Amino acid sequence: EEFVRFDSDVGEFRAVTELGRSWAEYFNSQKDYLEQKRAET
């Protein structure tokens, strides 16, 4: 089941379910990782 996904239109992670909210917040706080994902899209 998908909990979180990267939204390339917005450039950050979005929670798909309530369980993914904390993961999305964590991933979005990791600036290096977030920049890497933005560069991949």
UniProtKB/TrEMBL annotation:
Gene3D superfamilies: Class II Histocompatibility Antigen, M Beta Chain, Chain B, domain 1. GO terms for cellular component: MHC class II protein complex. It holds the Pfam family MHC_II_beta. Residues 1-41 form the MHC class II beta chain N-terminal domain. InterPro entries: MHC_I/II-like_Ag-recog, MHC_II_a/b_N, MHC_II_b_N. It comes from Myodes glareolus (Bank vole). The gene is Mygl-DRB. Keywords: Glycoprotein. This is MHC class II antigen. One of its GO terms (biological process) is antigen processing and presentation.
